[in-house]
Write a sequence for this structure.
């Protein structure tokens, strides 16, 4: 088994999951569960892996040392993709101590019900000496669970960042300089949009806190995906931008359609946006996954939602998207609704209610069309696109 050394006497001992395609509704291209082993006077293992990959982790550890020689386990995050194999690892390692946050201890007890594990609760600022190396703990509550924390290794200038700064991507490579940098950043954006967007105010505060701690970081090792070795500052800058929910002059026309009437309306609204010089994208939910919509939404100022009415309701894919988007809380956006209907026509009102919940600015009552749009109806949709485009221009500086 090939060993991956991250720093001197510091190894990646995680696992790559080539088959994962869904993470709680977010479409992914596989992922990795990253676990790190420090060999020092005290041997420490940081995070573990999803349960089916426990043996792989232990086999990687055995290439370096006997699992029983590990002294400390550090649990930066309890979600099962990082702790699923913990009971088996604890049994194999018999650790002297398990370091975790106070919420981490509670969450571990709620998951595994082991009162007898040797928990050692740490908080921000606590330090642990391993010999030549040490660990500085930083709690990152609600990023993205109450238990989450970072472990900083000052001697290696390495930040082990749990879920933050990760990407869901299965690769044989482990470092940013070995992969397509643009693709890596796009997948990091998708990860942020689908997991962390709702916590943006906390991300902003955390970045300030990390700056205040004056951590001398030259490498960021997240628990998923590729390690930021050659350009850790790039992902810190990207997180700062995403957490401010900075948008540009871009609009998404997101729709589902039964007999192409709503689709014709979507295309008309899209042409109105183009007439205003707005960068626009048509996203038919039959072919665009909700998580890809959210990735595009990260920098889009406006969303125009279109749905036919089916059985007095939205089409199911639109209902799904709106529930997913509401949970991720994009803020400061402009919205509009449109759709075709036969006799009741509730879809546009239901979209309007969802936009109100998301506190979107809605400058128009929207366009509803009975069955098939006329040329006049389509002209109203073009006008809707133009109106939203003008609102985007008025509120967003030109790039
Ligand atoms: Fe990768 Fe929140 O688990």
């Amino acid at each position: 088994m090939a060993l991956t050394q991250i720093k001197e006497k510091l190894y990646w001992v995680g696992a790559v999951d080539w088959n994962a395609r869904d993470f709680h509704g977010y479409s992914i291209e596989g992922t990795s569960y990253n676990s790190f082993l420090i060999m020092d006077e005290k041997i420490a293992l940081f995070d573990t892996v999803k349960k089916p990959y426990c043996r792989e982790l232990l086999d990687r550890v055995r290439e370096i040392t006997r699992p029983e020689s590990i002294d400390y386990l550090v649990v930066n995050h309890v979600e099962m993709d990082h702790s699923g194999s913990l009971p088996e690892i604890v049994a194999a390692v018999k650790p002297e101590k398990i370091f975790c946050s106070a919420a981490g201890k509670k969450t571990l007890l709620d998951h595994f019900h082991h009162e007898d594990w040797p928990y050692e609760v740490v908080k921000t600022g606590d330090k642990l000496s391993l010999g030549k190396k040490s660990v500085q703990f930083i709690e990152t509550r609600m990023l993205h669970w109450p238990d989450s924390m970072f472990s900083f290794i000052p001697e290696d200038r390495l930040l082990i960042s749990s879920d933050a700064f990760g990407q869901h991507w299965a690769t044989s490579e482990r470092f940013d300089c070995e992969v397509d940098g643009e693709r890596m950043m796009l997948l990091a954006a998708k990860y942020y949009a689908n997991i962390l967007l709702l916590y943006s105010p906390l991300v902003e505060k955390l970045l300030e806190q990390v700056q205040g701690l004056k951590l001398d970081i030259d490498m960021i090792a997240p628990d998923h995906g590729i390690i930021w070795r050659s350009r850790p500052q790039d992902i810190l800058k990207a997180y700062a931008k995403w957490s401010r929910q900075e948008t540009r002059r871009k609009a998404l026309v997101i729709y589902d359609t039964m007999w192409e009437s709503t689709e014709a309306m979507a295309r008309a609204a899209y042409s109105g946006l183009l007439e205003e010089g707005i960068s626009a994208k048509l996203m038919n939910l039959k072919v665009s996954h909700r998580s890809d919509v959210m990735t595009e939404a990260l920098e889009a100022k406006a969303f125009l939602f279109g749905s036919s009415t089916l059985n007095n309701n939205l089409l199911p894919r639109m209902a799904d998207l709106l529930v997913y988007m509401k949970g991720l809380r994009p803020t400061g956006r402009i919205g509009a609704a449109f759709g075709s209907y036969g006799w009741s026509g509730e879809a546009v009102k239901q979209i309007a209610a969802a936009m109100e919940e998301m506190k979107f600015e809605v400058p128009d009552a929207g366009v509803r069309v009975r069955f098939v749009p006329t040329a006049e109806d389509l002209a109203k949709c073009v006008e809707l696109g133009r109106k939203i485009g003008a609102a985007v221009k008025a509120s967003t500086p030109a790039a």
